[in-house]
Design a protein that fits this description.
By secondary structure, the chain is mainly α. The chain folds into 2 domains: about 50 residues; about 240 residues, MetI-like fold (Orthogonal Bundle), CATH 1.10.3720.10. The chain is about 75% helix and about 0% strand. A two-stranded antiparallel ribbon has the order 1-2. Strand 1 and strand 2 form a beta hairpin. Helix 2 packs across helix 13. It is flat. The termini are far apart. One of its GO terms (biological process) is transmembrane transport. Belongs to the binding-protein-dependent transport system permease family. Keywords: Cell membrane, Membrane, Transmembrane, Transmembrane helix, Transport.
Amino acid sequence: MRDARTTPLETAASGVAPRSVWWRTAGRALTPLAWVGPAVALILGVVLWPAVEMVRTSLTRVSSSGLSGGFTGFRNYAELFGENDLVPVLWRTALWVVGVVAVTLAVSLALAQVLNARFPGRRLVRWAVIVPWAASVLMTALLWKWMLDDFYGVVNKLLMDTGVIETPVNWLAHPEVAFACMMAVSVFVSLPFTSFVILAGLQTIPGEVYEAARVDGAGHLRTYFQITLPLLRPVLFVASVINVINVFNSFPIIWAMTQGGPGRATDTTTTLMYKLAFLNQDVGESAALAVVNFALILTLALLYSWGARRQGRAQA
C-alpha cells in the first residue's frame, strides 16, 4: 500500500505545473495584444490625444505666442457663433461637400464601368486614370490656378483662340466662378481613388448574376439599377464616407487657388479655422471651430451609416 504522504519532489512538481499552465494561458491571451498594441498606441497618440487637446484648447484663452490664459468656459464658442461669416461659411461647406461627393460618385460610377470593360489598351487607360492620384494635391491645385490665370493661363488662351471669349477672364476673382472651379478640381483629385474602389467592387460581382439577368430578358438599364447598384452598396458606402471626410477637411485646394477669397467669399470651415488661428491670432476660437467641424463630420458619418443599414434591412 502506497504511503499517502506527499514527497517534497511531488509538492514542487504540483506547484510548477499550475504556474506553467498560467503562463501559457496568459501568453496566448497577450499574443494578440502584441500585434494590436502598436496600432492602439498610434491611435491614442495621433488621434485621441490631439482630440482631447483640441477640446481643452477650445475652452481656454491662448495668446498669439501660444501661452495659455486660463480656462474661459464656452467663451470661445460664443465668439465663434457670433461671427457674421459663420453661417454663410457653414452653408458653403455643405454645398462644397455635397456637390463634390455627389459629382465624384456619379462620374466614378461611369468611369469604373468603362475601366471594367474589355478593350485594347485598357491597362494603359487605367494607369492614366490613376496618375492624378499620385500627384500632390497642392501641386494639382497650383497647376489649375496657373491654367486659369487671366494673364498667362492656357484656359483663356484656348477660349480666345476658339472665339468663345474676346478678352481674358480672371476666373478666380468672381466668387461663384472660383467656387465652381475649386469644386471641379476637387472632383478631379477625388476621381482616381473613388473609381478604383468602385472598380474593385464591380470585379467582385459574379458573372453568373448577369447571365441569369440576360436569360430573364433584363436590359442593360434594368440590370444596372436592379443588380449592379444594389450589389455595389457596401462599396459606395465606404467610398462616400471617405470622400465626405476628405472633402470636408480639404484645405490645400481652396488655399492654393483662392485662400478663401475674395474676402471670405470662398471660405469653408477648414480655411476659416486657419484664418482664425494664424491671421486673427485667436487659437481658442479656431479650436472651437475644429470641435464643431469634428462633431459635424461624426454626425454625418453616423447618419449615413444609419441610413445605409436601414435601407439594407428594408431590402433584405
